[in-house]
Write a structure and sequence with these properties.
- The protein is an alpha/beta fold and 142 residues long.
- The chain has a domain of 83 residues: Ribosomal Protein L13p, Chain: A, CATH 3.90.1180.10.
- Helices cover 27% and strands 18% of the residues.
- It contains five helices and six strands.
- A hairpin with a 6-residue loop joins strand 3 and strand 4.
- It is globular and about 60 Å long.
- The model has no long low-confidence stretch (mean pLDDT 95).
Length: 142
């Protein structure tokens, strides 16, 4: 018996559409991360990027449990003294709802050289309309 190595040119990539309306942020992010890494496919291989493309719509209508809207804080630093900025999840959802899902998915992907390549296959839109209609994504329910 011979063992065959999976080659990136042999991988067939698909497009999926996910509606984030009334979905819990963490559970949604784990499912999206599984699709991006390719763990939902039978030919999954951790060293090859076999994941599919994911389009997320209605990012502004996600749900979180508990008191996370006011207690979860996103940090960023300007690299200047006293440059630490703090933003709550509630304010982040008002201004940049796409970044909330992107941040959650980013830190659920493995921290290796493929993470940036997998994140580029994630398209997030705050509203109902999206720009990737030409790819005809399949709607899936998570």
């Amino acid at each position: 018996m011979k063992t065959t190595e999976l080659v990136p040119k042999d991988v067939k990539k698909e497009w999926f559409l996910v509606d984030a309306r009334d979905k819990i942020l963490g559970r949604l992010a784990t499912k999206i991360a599984d699709i991006l890494t390719g763990k939902t496919k039978p030919q999954y291989s951790p060293q090859v990027d076999v994941g599919d493309y994911v389009v997320v719509i209605n990012a502004e209508k996600i749900k979180v449990t508990g008191k996370k809207l006011d207690e979860k804080i996103y940090y960023r630093h300007s690299m200047y003294p006293g440059g630490l900025k703090e933003v709550t999840l509630r304010k982040m959802l008002e201004k940049f709802p796409e970044r909330v899902i992107e941040h959650a998915v980013k830190y659920m992907l493995p921290q290796n050289k493929l993470r940036d390549r997998r994140l580029k296959k994630l398209k997030i839109y705050a509203g109902e309309s999206f720009a990737n209609t030409a790819q005809k994504p399949k709607k899936i329910e998570l």
